[in-house]
Each structure stands twice: as C-alpha cells, then as structure tokens.
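INFO  loader      accepted 1 record
INFO  loader      residues=457
INFO  predictor   begin
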Amino acid sequence: MSLFGVLNIARDALLAQQAAIDTTGQNVANATTPGYVRRDAQLSTRPVVGAGEGGVEMTGYARSADGFAYSRLVEEEGRQGEASVRADALATIEGLLGPAERGISSAVTDLFSSFTRLSASPADPNLRGEVLTKSEALVRAFGNLAGGLVASRGELAAKAEAEAKEANLKLAEVATLNGRIAEATATGNEAGDLRDRRDVLIRDLAASLGARSIEAASGEVTLFAAGTALVIGSSASTLSVNVQSNGDLSVRAVRPGGSALDVTSKVDGGRLGGYLRVRDTDVPQLMSSLDSFAFDLATAVNAVHQTGVGLDGVSGRNLFSVGGPAGAAASLAVDAALASSPGALAAAATAGSLPGGSDIAVAIAQLLDKPLAGGATPGMTLARLVSDLGARRMAAEGDVALRADTVAQAEATYSSSSGVSIDEEMVKLTQLQRAFEASTRVLRAADQLLEGLLRDL
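INFO  predictor   done
INFO  writer      dumping tokens
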C-alpha cells in the first residue's frame, strides 16, 4: 500500500470518527428532549482490493427505535387516554349528584313528612299549602339533577368535538411527514428528526383516538383508528363529531375525496372513546335510573291520591303530572288542577269523612317505607342510583391507576432501547476520541514519511 493510500485511510478515519463524535454529541444534547430517539453512526469497513485502499467509511445513521416496544407503548397510551377522561367525567358527574342526592332525599322525606302533618289537621289550608310547596320542591330537585345530566352530555359532546378537531390537525401533519420521510428515504437522506416528530404525533393520536400504525419499507406509516385507516401515505382523512337525532354522538371518517364512513361503533380507546362511553352509555344509564325513580315515585303517590277526595268531594285527581318513564325526571310537575287549588288535595278517603278524614294523607305518608315498582323503598332506590355511579367511578379510577403502571412500564422498556444514557454516551465518546487521536497519529506519521521521501528525492 502506498503512503498516499495510508494518508487516505487516515483521513477517512478522521472524518468517520468525527461524524460519530458529532452524533454522540447530538445524543447528549437531546438526552432530555421529548420524543428524541438515540442515533448511532453506522461505520463500516471499506473493502481492500488487491493492494488498494481499505479503511473505514461512514454509511449513515440509525435510529435505535424498538418497534415492538414502541407499539406496546402506543397501545397502552390509548387505553390510558380513555380511562383518564372517563374517570374525570364520572367524578364530575358524581360531584353533581352528591348535592342533588341530598336535595332529592330531603325533598322526598319532606314531602311525606308534610302528609304526616296534614293527617293531623286535614282541613288546615296552611298544611295543604305546605304539601304543595314540598311537592314543588321535589319536582325542582328531580329537574335540577336531570338538567345537570343533560348539561354534562352537552359538555362532553363539545369536548369530543374539540378532540376530533385537534386530532385532525395531527393526522394531516402525519400525512405530510409521511411524504417527506418517503422522499428522504428514497434519496438516501437522513430523516431522524422527521421520524421523531411523527412518533410523537402517533403517540398523541393513540392517547386521543386509540390509534395504531404500521410502517412500510418506504418509511411511510398507515395509521389506523376507529376501525379504519385514517392516514395512508401522504393522504389523511378527517373525523367529524355530530349529535344525531336520537341525542347520541356520531363519529364519521371523511375521506380526502369527500366520502364519509360512520365509525361511531368502532371508536375504541383514546380520549374520544372515553368521552363517547361516558356521554352515550354511562350518563344515559344514570338518567334512565333517575327517570324510573321519578316515574315510580310519582305513580305510587298518584295511585293513592286518586282514591281520595279533596275538600270539594271530588276524587280521581293526580298530585303529579308525569308521562311515561322516559324523561320523567325532567318533565315531572305538580298537577295543574292542584297547583292553584290546595283544597283539591286529597287527604280523606270518602266525601262522608270530610272535612276531617285523613286516611289518604296517612297512606301517602306511609309510602316512604314501602317498596316502589322497582322493589325498593324511595330511600333505597336513590341510594342504589348513587352507589351505582360511585362503583363506576371507582372502577374507572382503578383502571387509571392500572394504566398508569402499564404505561410507565412500557415507557421504561421503550426508553431503555431508544433513549439516551449519558453514561453510555460518555463511554462511547471516550472510545471515539481515542480512535480519532490514533487516526491523527497515523496521518501525521504518513505525512512525515512522505515529506522525508520527497526531500530525499
């Protein structure tokens, strides 16, 4: 091998070691940068042909990303996203129900207590007015809670819509990055920064939509969520969230060409899935229980009240106006015929017992301790409703704790392969520094030999 060959080998070694040192410095500088994946300089031996040059050459950079660990992390973050918003939403609703429960419980007790007092003096206009006042208070208590639950559905719908809009921006960015990464891959250019950014976006979309991704040889990813591909190559679909005629939300995936696919039933995971589950499953079930309670209570009171007579001797009147079970809590009202006429309130069983008969007032007061149509007393029915919500909230919070642990484990596994260890980088830097210094000495020695040879000539 000629001295010029030695010079070239030493020069290339210096360049390769310098590139590796620069890569190590980049790793150290970004050790705490969110989403940064460690780079490794790829050095390879240049083949020796006959007596020709060999040495080392820099062939590129490699991201130390563990695809399996990354996929597991993305999956767990999708589950955590759903669990966290569901737990928060249920806690908020439980906070709404707490005061309302006390309000309804007190209103129920106060209503039946007012009938007990009325039974002692059935003709007393003040006591009759008190019964109507307590009836109105019960109506308001049911209406306030029903209104609060309806409002919570509206808030959750707004959050779901905002979540979809934010996700659409990220889906579009992933598609753009796909195109840039594919171009860089095709031309042999390094695209580590672009891949880092795309990985961060995919993790965000996992937490938002429960998204998953598959990478092709071109470097592009196909991103799936809600049972369909939302990003294919450099094209991205958008998600739209709307309220249907039945009051539930619908989620549609709108393709770049304008066609739309209903994916509501396929939304599984992520914050969007959590919002849908609470809004269109948990809250309606709670509202149904509340409506059944209001309907059964009003029906039980009306059934007894209809058999009695007012001070005018007329029977068959209802105390409460209520339609069917659906929406009963919100629509419950004091019957118009009684609201403006306390004398029409039935306390006596027959006209012959007027004005002092109190059998009906006593019978209604006793309903407090009798089972309703659902098989439980009013107090027990309300307690069941509250405990059901509490159980849902506690289960959701338990799921949050579980998901926090699994995400932490997945994060640790992924970071161990893709993150930057300062200690490891310092060891590597020391090795590269020594290799650089050795290459410098070879270069200097070859230069001196060449200089001496030229001088002798």
